[in-house]
Automatic annotation (TrEMBL):
GO terms for cellular component: plasma membrane. Signal peptide: none annotated. It comes from the Bacteria. InterPro entries: DUF318, UPF0718. The keyword Cell inner membrane does not apply. Pfam families: ArsP_1. This is Permease. Belongs to the UPF0718 family. It is a multi-pass membrane protein. It is found in: Cell membrane.
Length: 327
């Protein structure tokens, strides 16, 4: 949850929920003070797309956050160290496939990966898990199937491309990764005497508010593109195979939408090809602005400055390759 200090007040904070409440209050005021503004076709079109994306994605977001909090509360990090092979080349695919049965959003996968490294898991395997878990878990795949009804090839393409990115980056680290690029994370301080139920509740509340804010931003952006950007502009961008891929890759990095919800935003971008939208779905959970910040805080700035750009290039190339074959 984002908090901003108020000028002149050290203790006062403005949270993302406060900003959202302020926007809702503004809409209510406009409804009574200037109803003609809300009745304009552009505003109605914007609100329709915005509400549709949020309502479709919210159940999957809640389910994903709940599962992530449950795993973080019930599964000890030492389990992964015992379950993974000792050889990095073999540990990478095992850790990547583990993302199928261990769902979690991007925000949860970074600290989990940090815990794995701290407990002796080879960094290559931890990084493979970091990239795979938020992209190929059952919640994300089901959400993608719902967002793209009657198009199972999109689900298959997302699974194959996302797992491919995780494996490539894990194996790449075994070849060129250096220990001095990686700052081992310090153990997180827990609340003394806190019950598992309290830890689960706090983790779910924090992740839901945090991820929900990114969902709102993503839905608002998709609605703005649909309602305000001239159709011919979108058609020109979408009509260029290279430009459409680059634009949606950049959009995925900037929007930083939770992986449980990004499929609904991608589905709303109907002017773009399935391959370019696959790039959006693969890039987002692998590298975005919030992930870079989380990685820098967990593993150090030297790591993030090297890992994020390479991951972006690999994600785009793998997604385009898989899209050309499966879509």
């Amino acid at each position: 949850m984002t908090e901003l200090p108020l000028p002149g007040h050290r203790a006062a904070r403005v949270r993302s929920t406060d900003l959202l409440a302020g926007l809702v209050a503004l809409v209510v005021v406009l409804h009574f003070a200037a109803p003609d503004v809300l009745d304009r076709p552009a505003v109605l079109a914007w609100s329709t797309v915005f509400v549709a994306v949020c309502l479709q994605a919210l159940p999957f977001l809640v389910l994903g956050v709940a599962l992530s909090a449950a795993i973080g509360t019930l599964v000890p990090p030492s389990f992964f160290a015992r379950a993974l092979p000792r050889r990095p080349a073999l540990a990478v695919p095992v850790a990547g496939v583990a993302g199928v049965v261990l769902p979690g959003c991007e925000c949860a996968s970074v600290p989990v990966a940090g815990s794995l490294v701290r407990r002796g898991v080879t960094p290559a395997a931890a990084l493979a898990f970091l990239l795979a878990a938020p992209a190929i878990n059952p919640v994300v795949l089901v959400a993608t199937a719902v967002a793209f009804p009657g198009q199972p090839e999109v689900v298959a393409a997302r699974f194959a491309a996302s797992l491919g990115v995780a494996l490539v980056m894990g194996w790449l680290w075994t070849l060129v990764g250096r220990a001095d690029w990686l700052r081992l994370p310090a153990p997180a301080a827990g609340v003394p005497g806190a019950s598992r139920a309290a830890v689960f509740r706090d983790a779910m509340q924090h992740d839901l508010v945090h991820a929900g804010g990114f969902l709102v931003v993503g839905a608002a952006t998709a609605a703005t593109l649909s309602a305000l950007v001239p159709r011919r502009w979108l058609d020109e961008v979408a009509g260029s195979p290279v430009l459409s891929v680059l634009v949606l890759a950049a959009l995925a990095v900037v929007l930083a939408i939770c992986s449980e919800a990004d499929a609904f935003v991608a589905a709303s971008l109907t002017s773009f090809s399935l391959t370019s939208r696959l790039v959006f779905l693969v890039v987002g959970p692998a590298v975005d602005v919030k992930l870079v910040a989380l990685q820098a805080g967990t593993f150090g700035r030297r790591f993030a400055l090297r890992f994020a750009p390479v991951t972006l290039v690999v994600a785009v190339l793998v997604a385009v390759g898989v899209g050309e074959v499966l879509l």
